[in-house]
Amino acid sequence: MRILIVDDERPARDKLRRLLAAEPDVAAIAEARDGFEALEAAAAFRPDVLFLDIDMPEVTGLEVAASLPAPAPLIVFVTAYDAYAVPAFDANAIDYLLKPYDAGRLARALARVRARLDGARSSCSTGQPLRKLLVMERGVTRVVRVADILWLATADNYVELHTAAGAPLLRQTLAALLAALGPGFQRVHRRAAVRLACVERVAANDKGDGEVLLRGGARAPLSRQYRAALMAALHAAE
C-alpha cells in the first residue's frame, strides 16, 4: 500500500507514520501538512489510502475528500472530534479513527482497508464504470459527467476530457482512466480514446491512419494499429 498522511500537527503525523511503518505491506508513506498540500501530494504520489485529518485550517479534510480526482484513494478520517462521524461516512470514508487511538484500533482500520483493496483488485474488470469525474481547477472542484465526454487526449501528466463545453485537465494516465471508465470508451491512438456512443464516422487514408469524427463536429486522431479494434468495438456496440 501507498499511504498519504494528512494532518496539520507534526506529532500526529509522526505517530501515524511510526505505526504504519511497522506494517509489512506498506510500501511507501508520504505526508501533507494541510489541504492544499494534500491535493498536490495525492496527484503526484498516487496513494492507495489517505489517512486524513478533518479539522484543518483553510481547507478541511471533508473538502479535500470532495476534491480528489477520480479514481480516488480510500479514505480513513482521523480526528479528535466525534461530531464529524456522520459527514465523514457520507464522504465514503472506509473508517473513522478518533484521537487518541492505539495500535489495535489502527490495525482494525487497516484490516478494512486491505479488504476493500483486495475486493477492488479482484473485481476491477467487472466493476461499475464511473459516472462522473472530479477535476480540481485553481482550488475549485469541477464535476464532469462521463456521459458528456466526447473523447480523451493525453497532455503530459494529464488527460484532457474533451466535452462540448471545454477540455478540463485531469491528473491521470490515459490507461488508468480507460480502465476505470469501462467498455464505453475505445482507444484510437497512442494518445487518444473516444466514447463509442459519440462516434459518427471513421475516416481513414490508404495507410490506415485518419480521424474519428464525433458528435458536434469534434475530431480525434486515429492510428492504423487501433483501427481494427475500434471497428470491432463499434460493431459490438450496435
UniProtKB/TrEMBL annotation:
Single GO molecular-function term? DNA binding
Output the SUPFAM superfamilies linked to this UniProt entry. CheY-like
Task: Give the Response regulatory domain ranges.
Answer: 2-114
Keywords for the protein's UniProt record, in alphabetical order: DNA-binding, Phosphoprotein
| UniProt domain HTH LytTR-type: residue ranges | 143-236
Establish whether keyword Cytoplasm is in the entry: no
Q: Which residues carry this modification: 4-aspartylphosphate?
A: 53
Q: Which segment of the chain is annotated as a signal peptide?
A: none
InterPro entries reported in the protein's UniProt record: CheY-like_superfamily, LytR-like, LytTR_DNA-bd_dom, Sig_transdc_resp-reg_receiver
Output this protein's name. DNA-binding response regulator
